[in-house]
Design a protein that fits this description.
Layout (H helix, E strand, L loop, with lengths): L8 E3 L12 E4 L3 H10 L2 E4 L2 H4 L21 H7 L16
Length: about 100
């Protein structure tokens, strides 16, 4: 990767190995894991489940939409950052 002037971005588990700290840790785990990776010298992108996973309910009404992992109000998202990017992953594309 270095030879081609590229860096790798990997989930926070890459902090558990002996990878070059030129790689970037994408942390979906705890803040403690992010701090450990940063302390080792990694750049860290925070992607915690709450508030950033949009497959959680954004409404207090659990029948509002199909979702997993409980309630994640949009107000929390708005307080966390001034802007954000949403990626969509379809786990249940068709209901039968």
């Amino acid at each position: 990767m270095k030879k081609n002037n590229r860096i790798a971005i990997g989930w926070h588990e890459i902090n558990e190995g002996e990878l070059d700290t030129a790689n970037v840790v994408m942390n979906w785990g705890t803040d403690k894991q992010a701090i450990e990776a940063a302390t080792r010298g990694f750049n860290v992108i925070q992607t915690p489940g709450k508030p950033f996973y949009f497959d959680h309910y954004q409404s207090a009404d659990p029948t509002d939409s199909l979702a997993i992992h409980g309630y994640n109000p949009t107000e929390i998202i708005y307080r966390f950052f001034k802007s954000f990017r949403k990626n969509s992953y379809t786990e249940i594309p068709i209901l039968e």
